[in-house]
Fold this sequence. Notes:
Blueprint: H1 2-7, E1 15-17, H2 21-29, E2 39-41, H3 44-48, E3 55-58, H4 65-74, E4 78-81, H5 89-101, E5 107-109, H6 117-128, E6 135-141, H7 162-166, H8 193-196, H9 198-208, E7 220-222, E8 226-227, E9 232-233, E10 236-237, E11 248-254, E12 260-264, E13 270-275, E14 279-282, E15 287-288, H10 290-293, H11 303-309, H12 318-328, H13 336-355, E16 358-362, E17 367-369, H14 372-375
Parallel strand pairs: 1-2, 3-4, 4-5, 6-12
Antiparallel strand pairs: 6-13, 7-11, 7-16, 8-11, 9-10, 11-12, 13-14, 14-15, 16-17
Helix pairs in contact: 4-5, 5-13, 6-9, 9-13
Amino acid sequence: MGDAHQHSEFGDILAVCDVDDRHSERARNDERIGRGRADAYNDYRRVLDRDDIDVVSIVTPDHWHVKVAIEALQSGKHVFCQKPLTLTLEENRLIRQACQTHPELAFVVGTQQRGDKRRFLRAVNLVRKGLLGEVTKVTCGINGSPTGGPFKVETPPAELDWDRWLGPAPKTGYMKRRCHYEFRWWYEYSGGKFTDWGAHHIDIALWALGLDQHGSGPTEIDGADAEHPVPFENGRPTVNDSYNTSHDFNVVHRFPSGLEMHVTSRGDNGILFEGSKGRLFVNRRRITGRPVEESWDKDLFTQDDLANLYKGKPHEGHKANFFRCVREGGLPVSDVFSHVQTMNACHLSSIAARLGRTIRWDPQSEQIMGDDQASAMMSRAPRSGFEYPEV
């Protein structure tokens, strides 16, 4: 509903779609969304079939994102897709390839922190200008997943198409705590906090450090310091009636330069940069540290700097930037190609934590090295009838 309200400022919403009829009807009749005139669908393909629709906004659970997004691009639609963009490392490659195949279409990822000039953009600029000196450690505090369960299998509500909600995911009985917002705490549909908040804070960290381009990334990811709320065997939960994403972890990414990035559930939610000249902390509420207190970046954060971060476009809100790219072309500030680098780090964190050991990664070939068990976790075959389209 929040995304739809914002999209309505830039165009007419002609259709809404949800596998839960309660949701689609509420949106269809909302005075800022459907205004009682939009068509409501249960099957997103009916939206993609329409020639009078230019833009689609994908706010499904994570395990549906890439399939819908690729089909939207192939139908000629511009795409706004919420974070986290992907469920697996394989999906990263698929969506990147699909966007390369359709450069004429705008595609933005819903990482709105890239639009926050007072905090996150200032932090990125401070780091990029070298004002912290050589950054040797960055800590991404993303909190841990909640714990809960066991939950009972129930009869799905009549207004919910549970089979279509599952879609590409494995078939399983309906549990209220698997569905809607709570899907985040099950590896079957998401990555817990590794992807939920990692998609935000790891993104800012890599962007600031210039490590958001293809071929960059860590070479070792240590997941030994991670706990899960249910037993795991060979990287898979052994029970299916409780939340299973990690609730307590400190995963360490090591880069060829000697940089360490800690992805942790401990401490404050936010990003801490530690450099040879100073430390800087930033989150959605504040930006603190000596570089800020003493205004080290005074006169060093110009409109040209903002335009550079915005890929040559003016600084403006997240949705406004997207619709500018729809009109003018070019890449949005939150583009697929840099976000894939973020999602590589998010998924590698998850795999290392689930296995409880160090895994090795080749950022150039984007392969896990010398570990067949970990490599097998780079992808997941979709359920029959919900396969990816050919890219």
